[in-house]
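I had to read the description of the data format several times before I understood it. The format is easy to grasp once an entry is in front of the reader. For illustration, here is how one protein appears when written out as sequence plus structure tokens:
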Amino acid sequence: MALSLGSKIGIGVVVLGAIGYLVFSDPGEGVLEYVYAEKVVATPEAYQGRTIQVHGTVVEGTISKKKGSTGDYRFTIESAGERLAVHFTNIPPDTFQEGGEVVLTGRLSESGELFESDEMSAKCPSKYEEEDSVKQDGPAGISPSRT
């Protein structure tokens, strides 16, 4: 059974309306902009008042923790030579370390000089390098035989 012209137009209007709603509605918390620290440092005014995800590498020697607290850290992240100060107010993941890559979710302070965050994911480069080495050399540094 074929659809009438009126039915086809009606379905088209409904589909276009749904697509228009999805495109122009507020994405809410499910969609966060992901940016590197150098972009935030270069144009802080573009990110103020918004929740974003910032990627960078933790600068060696910058991690400090407030005494007596379970999650009050200050450190600096770097990307493409630009540095951004961070205040992290939660318990960091086990892989958090100096020189490691992190992705922080939070907001830029009103001054644009401090990133306030309570959510972090971290990657430990030395852990992954060690795993790659074991896979290539085999267990206990023994090279796999080549036959």
